[in-house]
Amino acid sequence: MRPMTGDLLQALGGLGLFLLGMSWMTESLRALSGPALRGALARFTRTPLGGAATGAAATAVLQSSSAVTVTAVGFVGAGLLTFPQALGVIFGANVGTTATGWIVALLGFKMQLGAAALPLVLAGALLRLYGGARAAQAGSVAAGFALLFIGIDAMQAGMAGLEPLLSPADLPGDDLAGRLKLVAFGVALTVVTQSSSAGVATALAALGAGAISLEQAAAMVIGMDVGTTATAALATLGRDVASRRTGLSHVVFNLATGAMAFALLDLFARAAAPMAAAGEAQVALVAFHTGFNVLGVALVLPVAGPFARLVEWLIPDRGPRLTRRLSPALLAEPALAMDAAAGTLEAVAQAQSLWLAHRLDPQPGPRPPAEAAALGEAIAELRGFVDGIVPGAASASASVAPRLAAALHALDHLGRLHYRCAQLEGREGAQAGALSGDARLRTLARALAAAAREQAAGAGAPAGAARLLALIHRRQEGFRTRALTLAAEGRVADAAALAQLDALRWLRRTVYHLHRIEHHLGAMRAGAAPASAGREAARDVLED
């Protein structure tokens, strides 16, 4: 029994090495290609077909469907992709995951690179220890890639030693009940290892050692494909709407594809018999895995639009409209979290501007999407989300940090603008009365409303707000002198004169915040670093 125990431990250790190699490789590839992945998804996903091709290619390169799927979900949350466009990416990622099987079958088993990969582990370790940030990531990719083949060699050797203990006759038979049991085993293996690629590699090793037949391996692979839905479903529990819609789409697609593949098992067994007889059973298995996933994508893409609408109907968005993009799950990906925060910040700023314009100068047209209290809640929620964004790695920090700094400046001014707007309501509503009680103040208030409407329409208002701010600066001393003179002469009540001066200061401060919000939003869009904190603080002291 001891040799058998040793072989079992060797097979399990090989599986562990394979999983470790996959983890190192995918995490490092993800870090190295983050901006490139985001750029590819933004550029090539205009149609479901383009999304599927991009998802398949990106997953094949990154060896991680979760990285691609999370990025696509983040883009939906940030408003950069529609849900139907993201569906193409998600379906394509299923095809991309089968690339690992081809690597294992063609390089791991046919070329047996385990021993040759050992120097690559040393090279990767040296890069991790002595290289810079990107060199260390490249070292992790190299070491992870090498560990795949070392793990495959160990699994293959361990499985070969188990041949007297485990053979096709010891597994469920080739009937409906037996196949369903094998599918269930494949599901369980994927749930335990959290990797369908590791499950496929295990099936290939067992097939190569003669421990299972091709038909049994095919049934297990179907289960492994279906097993990924359990991980996806669990990962979306309690998450935002976009994540739950993605999880449901993944579950439905994989279950439907698995059912189709199960129905095709007999046809596959007959078609693959010549390849199995020629010693190409492992290639036949990965071809089956890729084939039924490609067929599933080809069948679902023409109905991606109706399918997306069905999922949206099943999982409606009932959350606050302004902050629906903010999901705590995105904080694990700083760039995606920044995209979501930027889109939300733009939406809240436009809503606040529209509220201000409508309050100062009501006109026919779009109504504010939220009341003052709801805007305050949205700003508070956005501030909490932005506080959780940590740029992290150097590659992420280079692109996220400048945008994050600009967003923080804009959010600070947005909070103060909201406070100024609140002064038009409730017990402090006398501010509005003072604005309407003087012709010059009414003119300035209408000009402010026009600038706010421009910003709310997305036209931007930095130039208009800057001109209005300069005009107020030029006129405020004369206005102040005249108001106090009229009060001293008894032509205007003292309280009324002071209220007019307060209203003028309110106008100046409100215009200033509107101007700075649009300025910092522009910097955030361009990814430009804001002015120094000292200069910004000095400007704030002068204006506020």
Automatic annotation (TrEMBL):
State the GO CC annotations. Answer: plasma membrane
Keywords in alphabetical order: Cell membrane, Membrane, Transmembrane, Transmembrane helix
Compartmental location: Cell membrane
Q: What is its main location?
A: membrane
One GO process term, biological-process aspect? sodium-dependent phosphate transport
Q: How is this protein positioned relative to the membrane?
A: Multi-pass membrane protein
Q: Which domain of life is it from?
A: Bacteria
Q: Where are the transmembrane segments?
A: 62-81, 88-107, 113-130, 142-162, 217-238, 250-269, 281-301
GO molecular function list: sodium:phosphate symporter activity
Where, if anywhere, are coiled coils annotated?
none
The name of this protein is: Phosphate:Na+ symporter
The lineage, from the top, is: Bacteria, Pseudomonadati, Pseudomonadota, Alphaproteobacteria, Rhodobacterales
